[in-house]
Amino acid sequence: MEATEVAELVKEALPGCEVEVQIDGNHYLVVVVGDVFEGLPTIKRQQLINKALFQHIVDGTIHALHPKAFTPAEWAARQG
């Protein structure tokens, strides 16, 4: 599964978010930045990303998913 396909699935599930996907074999690092994560704990944020890709996790297309979710302010602070 291509990075662009993964990004589109996440964008469909979480409209208005910026999505970056890095792939190493069948390990996927998915970074999502959006207001939707405001006030949510880390686990809830990850669950939103996991839900968008659930079918591909279940069928083995995505073996390992590493979701990272940030609000725009959190992302800006990380960028220094």
Automatic annotation (TrEMBL):
It holds the Pfam family BolA. It comes from the Bacteria. Belongs to the BolA/IbaG family. This is BolA/IbaG family iron-sulfur metabolism protein. InterPro entries: BolA, BolA-like_sf, BolA/IbaG_stress_morph_reg.
